[in-house]
Amino acid sequence: MLGPKEYLCLIGFKEAVPKNMARVPDIASHLENAFNTVYKSWRDTALLLQRQPTAQLAHLSTMSTYASDFGLMLAWLKVVKDLAAAPEQTCVACSDPWLYRALSLLDGLSSAPAPSLSRKRLQYFCRGVLARLWVTSRCFSALVRTRRHKECSIQANWLMVYGHPESTADGNDAYFSNLLNDIPALQRIMHTDCDASFALTLAKGKRTYSLHAWGRVRTILKLPFAKWRPDTQHLEPKIAWLVKRAAAIEGSGGSAAMTKWQMSCQASWLRETQPKSVSWPWENHPWERHFVRQTRKLGVNTFGYQHTVVGRHMFNQGADANVDGINSLPDKILLNGPCYRDDLASRGVPQDMMEEIGSHRIGGKKLPRYGKEGVVFLALSNNPVFAMQMIDAARPLACSGMQFLIKDHPLSPYSFEDSPHFTHTQLPLEQLPPLRALIYCTGTTGLEGLLAQIPTIRFIPNSGIALDILPQSMQVTSVAASELAATMEKLPVIEIMNSEKLFPPPNVEKWRALFSPT
């Protein structure tokens, strides 16, 4: 039985803690603080891996915090290392076989035999084979169905975009709004993430085409074998275990095959259509870095539109995460406003490569309203574990004097039972009643709360990292579950913000100038 100064730290378990075992205090804050220190370690590992042949197919090697949890694993290493050095005795229970092996190499720990790897490896391998076969069939079908799209303009100006469901055939685009209609000479090419059926629907507008059409059959034959295969022999043993883990997880899906297909299609498209200029929603993913390297060889002008948020936890969006630095960044990074300029500059993006051009997606949104005696809005995370923790922390605070409205993420519905003063809503933000406070965990709802001048609180989960997407100049109060009640008693001071200045409307004249250089 654990004594009064002995604690339990669970990693990867969802079961409740036995009553006779005390959890490590403030584990959520410990984990977040640790994550805030892992950037350099991840970057150094990523830069080493980027020199290897298949690294361009991976998310870990490009520091994508949305697609890889390598940073979370590094954070757990630091947390457990700190616990081992503390005077209290802590029992660490870890269900992940790779992380367990990495933790067992830390000084000051005694460990039991590691859990078996064979079952997980087999599970991931089989799932990966099926996923890549599905990708292969999907890409072959898309190639056949869109083959006539190769009959398009040569040496034109293009927008390359993802297949967002809000885009339409009449020229409206979810990322670039009405730019296709504002600049009639522009053409739109759809990324290979866009399903062939949707691409054909969009093509009815006569200026939209699918990249799938430029695919090669010989590339399709290679897709079942497209996989990241890192060489870990020169890495520190703890890091090597985590890289092996990431390779197994990434290999269990079809993302590497899709990335290889995108790279093949875009390379053929560039050679055959010889575009003058291309702009796309820039996030510095592997296919984007490959695309820029190709365009530099061909003399194509490139404009990466920073269509969304960056924030301190978006590690991949910078030059210092690229093995070739600024050489795989677009000629210009077009900012949606002044907010994130400093964040990008701190990641090695030169000031003269950035230009503010306005926001198509953020500044124009209708915002919620503030009311001193209003309700509390709880914006649930798209991560179901985080959403459950938010509900468990907030529900006990609900009363007649503090009513909660809860909204789940539209792409990740989360079912829960309503209770007095704690009810579900599907209303859009602008239709909500006045809000006294807004609590969020992931996503852009917190940014919208700040722009609406509502006291905004960021919830920190105790089992993972809620990525902070706010700019350096707009940080908010971050609290764990144990701190939420006290924070609601003394809400953060409202800061006056000018949303139109921070995220101005799109400057169409600047866009025209980019695509019509003198």
Features:
518 residues, alpha/beta, Rossmann fold, 3 domains, six-stranded parallel sheet, 33% helix
Give a description of the structure.
The strands form 3 sheets. The protein has a 7-stranded parallel sheet with strand order 6-5-4-7-8-9-10. It has a 6-stranded parallel sheet with strand order 13-12-11-14-15-16, sandwiched between helices. Strands 2-1-3 form a 3-stranded parallel sheet. The chain folds into 3 domains: 6-35 and 69-103, no CATH class; 148-213 and 254-363 and 507-515, 3-Layer(aba) Sandwich (Rossmann fold), CATH 3.40.50.2000; 370-500, Glycogen Phosphorylase B (Rossmann fold, 3-Layer(aba) Sandwich). The chain is α/β, with parallel strands linked by helices and 518 residues long. The chain has 17 helices and 16 strands. Helix content is 33%, strand content 14%. The longest helix has 28 residues, at 118-145. The radius of gyration is 24 Å and the shape is globular. The model has no long low-confidence stretch (mean pLDDT 92). The chain has helices at residues 27-35, 39-49, 70-85, 97-103, 118-145, 179-182, 196-202, 217-220, 237-250, 255-273, 286-298, 341-345, 384-394, 445-451, 484-489, 499-502, 508-515, and strands at residues 6-11, 22-23, 89-94, 157-161, 186-190, 208-210, 277-281, 301-306, 332-335, 354-356, 370-379, 404-407, 422-424, 435-440, 456-459, 477-479.
